[in-house]
Amino acid sequence: MDRPTHLFPDWGISFALQRLSSFAGGMSDMLSVRHHEFGAPSEVLRVESLPVPEPGPGEVRVKLLAATINPSDYGMIGGSYGSLRELPAVAGREGVGAVDALGEGVDSVQTGAHVRFPDGGTWQEYACMPAEDLLLVDASVPVEQAAVSFINPPTAFCLLDKIVDLKEGDWIVQNAGNSAVGLSVIQMAKAMGLKTISQVRREELVEPLLAYGADQVVLEGSAWPKKLKELTGGAPVKLALNSIGGESAIDQIKALGDGGTQVTFGGMVADKVRFPTRFLIFNDVRLVGFWWDKFCKTEGADAVLEVMDRVYTMMREGQLKLPIEATYALPQIQEAIQHDKSPKLGKVLLRP
User: Fold this and answer.
1) Number of domains in the chain
2) Where is each Peptidase A2 domain found (predicted)?
């Protein structure tokens, strides 16, 4: 259920008056959510006022329309992610904005165009970036869907399309089936003619995932690999998608057919995964990893644009739609994070 937002929700009268004064005087400052050290979001995040940046030659200024809270944001704020920003850093990795101002010499884009908000920190009202680095967003994609389109859906597409040669009717298994990647996998797999088993931790998630198109939904810890033939009609599982680790990942390895592949792209729990010697030897299973950030760097802009085009085509044709749980204003960041960490089915968005 979307949370209604107001002009100055819970900000305090003095802050509201300050912002109204800024609007009246031509807006010279903006809000940002920053951290000056790595640590828990509740301890290190601060809502700060910064000057609105001006685009230099060859640059554009982008105004935030909507950002989201991604699981990788917690790693970046906490200092454990694969790549970190220099401190102080604006938090947030994913969001959509509109081109707001053009720097000298820019004629390749018009103001108002929807683009990916600069990746240097999405939890702020404005940012500048080189016009040549813009990732344009299909104008037919709703803002809320565009805001969550840059990390999880392309990750899901690559997991299904870039690692194992899957054919129509093949079975895959994934954990965290109710996550944004999980819901993307379910819907994309259905569009590709693939069959899915989705692992979840809560029974109340079974029916919603079936409604999104999942073929089978199983509960973690239910010994579901022993019922695999019943679940798939005897067909082997060729691909396992792991973003949790621990016993959940071990169950997937048990379920893989001969020569099957498990792809790890996240680790929600810190539990160790036992080295699956028996399955490596006798079933020839393969364990690999995937990181969308690395794909973008190693494969280049053309490959990224190709993936994003497939994502937006599915969104445009109604084959992919991610649920939005709630929307908060930037100053409500702590409330938004608390909501994001609670049991839910959908993304939490941030707006200016």
Assistant:
1) 2
2) 206-246
